[in-house]
Design brief:
By secondary structure, the chain is of the alpha+beta class. 48% of the residues lie in helices and 15% in strands. The protein has three domains: 3-115, no CATH class; 128-223, DNA polymerase, domain 1 (Orthogonal Bundle), CATH 1.10.150; 239-421, hpI Integrase, Chain A, CATH 1.10.443.
């Protein structure tokens, strides 16, 4: 009996994105012929179904899909339907003549179709921005896991902006359009640092596309968009305030006590971001044996950077000992930040901090003065860890290893010059002054 089916060749997966090719297979009298669809899908996320209404095969997702992924799926299913209809047309033509076509004959008939020459083909029109975006997000999800949130945010903004203008091809991604994209984000009140992040992600996406299709032509406007990243000075606790926090008695305030302890543990291992601290905390909570080696190893969710064997010092070990290795649940990010401000208020941390606000050109627009107790949050962990590292004479190389910074430029934002070091600069100047007065 002759049979035509569509299947995913799961035993072959691309090294780049773990996708497998799709093939039509025609069998008759124990012989077969296969026809490539030139399509690939993730065999874990997608499966093949036969639509009983149309008697056509289609790809179906095993889970939820984003808007872009649904559009890509629709385009792929349209191509599958076209190929199947062509094969069925040849099979039916032979059936009307009174005999069943063999796999070899079907292969010859299918590939003997006249080739339509396309004049000056445009690579940009072969695959839409939405298809590339979906493939990029899937690839990044496998690469960095939960750290994909930033890329998904950029995709959502870009998807909405382009969708409202009916833009699908890279050839339309010109400078004026991208400037309009930037201005729209500004009009919605997004900070310059956030907008800079969107364009940084856009450049990463476009460079990824170029790596996967060397012939694709993309206007160079995306390289000319200027959004100057200016970040305020990171704020952390001094060694004295950190010790004050560590020794503060919160026995009667259980949730505040757990919040403080989670912060102390985080600072003691180099100042991870909250999502990484929560992951580390929960691993120890579920399996206390992970802390018995006196070291912590983890991947950053945001960047995918690997922290290998960060040594637990006595501050971190004292927290584990306090709970007899059985750590309680830590609060959510929002709740933890509220708790930290309560603790700072109880400690009367009224030190004034001046916060600059920048525009997209990197110029200061305004200054805002506020107190530490109003600012204290989980973001203080990284700065506090590096401030104490520096105060204790830990080398920058080791401190960067603990914090996860890959470049000194990024790390340097967290380093302050000690007041005593600044004062030491006065001595050689005073010496010159005395010499000049002789």
């Amino acid at each position: 009996m002759a049979r035509l089916r569509l299947f995913i060749k799961g035993d072959y997966q691309s090294r780049k994105n773990s996708e497998s090719p799709l093939y039509f297979e025609y069998t008759h009298n124990n012989t077969r012929a296969r026809f490539s669809t030139d399509l690939k899908v993730d065999p874990i996320r997608f499966l093949i179904l036969l639509d009983t209404d149309t008697n056509l095969y289609k790809i179906s997702s095993t889970g939820a899909c984003s808007k872009i992924e649904r559009l890509v799926l629709q385009e792929k299913n349209e191509k599958i339907a076209k190929t199947q209809n062509e094969l069925n047309g040849i099979i039916k033509a032979f059936s009307l003549k009174g005999f069943t076509i063999s796999p070899d004959q079907l292969e010859r008939e299918f590939y003997s179709k006249p080739v339509v020459e396309v004049v000056d083909p445009s690579p940009n029109q072969q695959k839409s921005i939405y298809q590339w975006l979906a493939d990029f997000i899937i690839s990044k999800e496998r690469e960095i896991g939960d750290g994909i949130k930033s890329y998904k945010g950029t995709r959502g903004k870009l998807d909405k902006f382009l969708g409202e203008r009916g833009i699908t091809n890279f050839s339309e991604l010109k400078l004026l359009l991208l400037e309009e994209f930037r201005n729209e984000m500004l009009s919605k009140g997004l900070k310059p640092t956030t907008i800079h992040k969107q364009f940084k992600n856009l450049r990463i996406f476009i460079n990824w596309v170029k790596d996967h299709d060397e012939d694709i032509v993309i206007p160079s406007g995306y390289m000319k968009i200027k959004v100057v990243p200016k970040y305020g000075r990171p704020i952390g606790l001094s060694k004295e305030k950190f010790i004050q926090l560590f020794n503060f008695n919160l026995t009667d305030r259980k949730e505040l006590d757990i919040t403080r302890d989670a912060f102390i543990l985080g600072v003691s291992i180099g100042g991870p971001r909250f999502q990484d601290l929560k992951k580390i905390w929960n691993k120890i909570r579920v399996d206390s044996s992970k802390s018995k080696k006196l070291q912590i190893s983890y991947y950053e969710q945001k960047t995918g950077n690997y922290h290998n064997e960060i040594q637990l010092n006595l501050f971190g070990l004292s927290i584990l000992e306090k709970y007899d290795q059985k750590l309680p649940r830590i609060p959510s990010l929002n709740r933890m930040n509220k708790n930290m401000k309560k603790i700072a208020g109880m400690l009367d941390w009224d030190d004034i901090e001046t916060i600059p606000r920048f525009n997209t050109n990197g110029s200061i627009q305004t200054f805002e003065e506020t107190t530490i107790k109003k600012l204290f949050s989980t973001k203080f962990m990284r700065k506090t860890a590096m401030t104490i590292d520096q105060d204790l004479g830990v080398s920058p190389k080791i401190s960067m290893k603990r914090s996860g910074h890959l470049t000194f430029e990024a790390f340097n934002r967290y380093i302050d010059v000690d007041k005593l070091d600044m004062k030491s600069a006065e001595e050689p100047w005073n010496k010159i002054f005395v010499q000049s007065s002789i």
